[in-house]
Design brief:
With 226 residues, this protein is of the alpha/beta class. It has six helices and seven strands.
Amino acid sequence: MEIKNAKFLKSSSNNKHCPPPDKPEFAFIGRSNVGKSSLINMLCNEKNLAKTSSKPGKTQLINHFIIDNKWYLVDLPGYGYAKTSKTNLDKFEELISNYITKRKNLICVIILIDSRLELQPIDGEFMDWCTQHEIPFCLAFTKIDKLGKNQWASNFMKYKKRLMDYWGELPQIFETSAEKRQGKETILEYIGENMQYFIPPPKGVKATNDDDDEFDEEYENDNDGI
């Protein structure tokens, strides 16, 4: 699959303000400064579609992009950025939790991991959280070009052991480099193959976010946070 047209659609401060859930949706998330914006721009053949910044924590809203008028690509706020207030951290966690657990057309969460680092506790915790909430996810290791094959192999083995110990199998894994444009074809192929799992609303029924309210009480009582 090749992206021919990618446009920014809107930024939302909560799940109810997101576009109608009328197309399959794939969300990208990771620790702050993991290279998420650069990867999104590479996938979409754009230089400035997703705004890049040297300052971690720049993305603070749910950002929707419409791709070829067929599916939504979502840029979520980075998790784990400590240089903000406790109130803001709680707000970001609630924003992400609500979106991931309630977005009806979300097909998969693509978690970005910095390949240069060993397994970070917060990445493991987020993967555990997705598993507990039965959220499909895959892993995209970024900045592969920044380290040697031996170091990457060592880091990956630690991730593999962690995942195998917990689940007994590995999720879909992508090796990526925005600078070298590595991983583009495999990620887009994966997205193309999984769009079939989107269930559109019945004919004549408009897709809306209105029925999120019925989940609020259950979410507040059950959600443990990210």
